[in-house]
Amino acid sequence: MSAGKLRGLKRIADEEGRFRMMAIDQRGSLQRMLRGVLSREVAYGDLAAIKRAIVKVLSPWSSGTLIDPVYGYPEALKYFPKDVGLLITLEETGAEKVGPSGQERKSRLIAGWDVPKTRRLGADAAKLLIYYRGDASPDVVEHQRRIIREVGEACVRNDIPYVLELVGYPFKEDEDEETYAKRKPEIVFDYVSEFSKPEYNVDILKVEFPANLKYCQEFAAGEFDGQRREPLYDLTAVEGFCKRVTELARVPWVILSAGVDIDEFVENVRIAAENGASGFLGGRAIWQDCVNYYPDIEAVEQCLSTSGVDNFQRLYAASQDATPYFEARPFRGYPRIELEGRGESWYRDY
Amino acid sequence: MSAGKLRGLKRIADEEGRFRMMAIDQRGSLQRMLRGVLSREVAYGDLAAIKRAIVKVLSPWSSGTLIDPVYGYPEALKYFPKDVGLLITLEETGAEKVGPSGQERKSRLIAGWDVPKTRRLGADAAKLLIYYRGDASPDVVEHQRRIIREVGEACVRNDIPYVLELVGYPFKEDEDEETYAKRKPEIVFDYVSEFSKPEYNVDILKVEFPANLKYCQEFAAGEFDGQRREPLYDLTAVEGFCKRVTELARVPWVILSAGVDIDEFVENVRIAAENGASGFLGGRAIWQDCVNYYPDIEAVEQCLSTSGVDNFQRLYAASQDATPYFEARPFRGYPRIELEGRGESWYRDY
User: What is the CA radius of gyration of chain A?
Assistant: First the structure.
């Protein structure tokens, strides 16, 4: 392993080697949330202010915090604690809708930002979110894979850990909530398997929970949203899906929160952590309720410092069985991690 | 202030904003120490082993640890805690002896290492040691200034904090210990004043104690080495020298240990910290006694974990009145630190 990547992984994990990370790099979705609570247009300063408040109050509870370089970092950097890892976002928010259905998604990078800037900034990892369906149109699939590959190469050149976030989406005519929930495990297996290939140079996979817990027999009576559903799988099957992700992933993986509420996310994290995940990178599930108090920033911060902190503590407990990154593949034990090119000429060859 | 430099400063200071840093980047002097305790040639592995032991046991006690990329970092990186800042050395050990007396010193950088590699590695600061006398031959002075200036430019391009270490030396015929001790304050004032100029882009000055405490009236009876000396100045004058350094330094400054023993270094740190220094970056004073146990690495580590830790705790106490970097010039208060180019187009312009 290279020196920069190893240092970066250590910086974004906690001392146990588990990832207890927070995301506050939302732009489009946060803008929509703010539009809902404000009776006016959402300005740059609104996004900057809410991100600053969230970093200020919750970042100290995280092992690493993910933030965007547009509205987030320049306004929040003074509140980043020294011992919290810094992850920076590379992709433009949203996606271009394309393909026969008009529902397939093409991503692009933030124009004017890149991996070298991320490294120069002193960040500990670069993160790329890609919407991905392996069964989308070939040109869409190839477009998404190419971006992932190119960012991987840039991260190697800049010797910075590469966190690849993958999010599937329904785009076929029959893909209502239930059908999509049924297909979700396979969608997740497919992208985990694809982007575990060495050619993409991914260091951490940030993935969706490989099922929809609302359709899991043990929770289908309306546990999370009061709505009863016909179960598609039981808990044993869901645990099996997580084990399958662990088998397919050639690198440590973490669970993303994708806008589910905190109770469901806690269950996602618990089940994933007990079955091979190395932790979580949670966003809205942790802080979304507090956004409703905006623009009363004092109230936002009071909410964050109580229920936000409580959410974090629940997630810590839920992830206590997570696999430390150094126990996951490709490492299988911290003592086995070997510095690439270690020895007398390392400094010249690096 | 730029984003990378601000993050880096925060990373190498402790949460109070004080620098409690350790240096284990010695090469020539450490080689000489090891030669003294071994009955054979000193090998790469010896230097690597002792550096690894010191990082392992003492690095967690530091706010940041300075290490070289040759024998040090590749062998010790796995022991660096996530919350300890990483400083990397740029200069080749030793110096070329030149000038009419054959005692003037020209420095050079490590061939095969540079600031971009330091940044890519994930380091939080780059450090350059320069032997400097402003009254040396003009070509020597210009040579040393040019290196300092060029490294400053590279640190700006890579947006990484620049720690410049300056060490004077006797080179004139009349410069015996006493004469040199008398001239030392002026030598330190001269280099602090010169390298505070904005053209050098220095972020932290690592300087010598601006007097020789063995010639200070209150310690001249042999306090540190049992040898009585004719005093050259009293404590009030020495405090005045430190205040003068604070006046001349346009950036935070820290005290180096330069091979003095721990009792003298604790006094240096205490007096400097009470008079404007922002902390210390101590090397041999902290760990040198333990090197005598080499090659019994177990004994070295036992020594470090007792007297080494005790030395660190004494230095923490001695530096309790140090000026937090954000209270020193050019900042004058954390709330006054302003991100360069902050605002909507920051990410594009960065």
Answer: 20
Smallest CA–CA separation between B95 and chain A, in Å? 20
Q: Which domain holds residue B58?
A: 3-349
Total count of domains within chain B: 1
CA atoms of A47 and B302, how far apart (whole Å): 52
Give yes or no for residue B259 having a pLDDT over 90: no
Going by C-alpha positions, the residue among B72, B63, B65, B64 that lies closest to residue B30 is B72
Q: For a pLDDT cut of 90, what percent of chain A falls above it?
A: 99
Residues from chain B contacting residue A117 (CB–CB below 8 Å): 347, 350
The CATH number linked to B274 is 3.20.20.70
**Closest B-chain CA to A12:** B82
Residues of A in contact with B3 (CB under 8 A): 73-74, 77, 121-122
pLDDT per residue as tens digits for the range A233-243: 999 999 999 99
* Entry pTM: 0.97
**DSSP string covering B84-97:** SEEEEE-BPSS-EE
- Beta-strand pair A96-98/A104-106: antiparallel
Considering only CB atoms, B347 lies closest to which of A69, A82, A348, namely: A69
DSSP SS3 for A135: coil
Of A14, A44, A119, the CB nearest to B344: A44
Reduced 3-state DSSP string for A283-315:
CHHHHHHHHCCCCCHHHHHHHHHHHHHHHHHHH
Q: Mutate which of B1, B7, B70, B342 to disrupt the A interface (most A C-beta within 10 Å)?
A: B7
Which residue in A4, A82, A337 is closest to B122 by CB distance? A4
pLDDT in tens, B74-104: 999 999 999 999 999 999 999 999 999 999 9
Tens-digit pLDDT profile for residues B221-242: 999 999 999 999 999 999 999 9
> For A254-266, what is each residue's pLDDT tens digit?
999 988 999 999 9
User: Would the pLDDT of A232 be above 90?
Assistant: yes
